[in-house]
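Hi D.,

Good news: the full-assembly prediction came through. Inputs first.
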Amino acid sequence: MIPLATTLPEHSNDGYVAAAYIVFFAIVLIYVAIMAVRLGRVERKVEALRGEAKNEAPSARAGDTSILEDPGAPPERPGRAQEHSLTSPPRGGEQAGETV
Amino acid sequence: MRSPGLRALSISTVAAFCVSLGLVFFYAPIEAEEGFVQKIFYLHVPLAIVTLSGFVIGGLCAIAHLRTREARWDLRSYVAIHMSLIFGVGVLITGSIWAHASWGHWWVWNEPTLVSFLIIFLLYATYQPLRFAIEDPERQARYASVFAITAGAFVPLNFIAVRLSASYVHPRVLGSASNLPGSMMFTFLVSLVAMALLFATLCSYELTAKRTRIMLKARSRILGYQS
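Then the structure:
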């Protein structure tokens, strides 16, 4: 059985405990920060695409910009065919489940 | 990127961590031999368990990928291993801090538990270079799955081998040698749940981000947009 202390130890290494927890939360924070930067990049691309679509839409699609409304939409679970390899994004029009 | 499931998962993770930290610092008793330093146990051990489980989950997803040939399983396998590697860095650092506080050394090379974890970590550290060295996506996914299965099988084998090892100074938590008092065990289990939730949340976040990027690239191609 593990013995328990009845009083606080005189030489407690509080610094080590603090360091361990700080390191752990720092790792998580760094990861979240990297993800946030990537997300910002994605948002900028969405905005650029939206602008592109607005320019092209009147002539080519008669105002149909529905293909750009997806990134913020809740159904984030694409069909099986929409989840592709990490290095090869799907080619437009080749995948089942695409709206276009 | 908005997903009700992800939001609920994130909120429950934060709540679980608040409860866990509260229990660690205000409820769990102080151990007599190690003193306050033993509080690292509630961070380091759940982190190690979740990391090793993540590697095994990556292997299981890889099996599903090879059986079904569905790319989503490959993506899940990749994300589980990727996240486990990040958590693995945390395990090594917090373990070293705890070792220095308890044993006076940052690393003990004749301790099987430490060395075996380092071997597993280094083994998985080769996963991404191996994966991204292959250009053909089909082959890349297939080879990565084979690697994930082989390495995933190595994790429990390694665990058993370390258990059978005679000499160790690293404390045992799981098994008959564990004699944690009720309050400590309860705190440990809550910490384990919190860590598992954090892993699930970050995996879910990463998966959602990857899917969004894939969809965005697809739509960029449809529009002929060059980033």
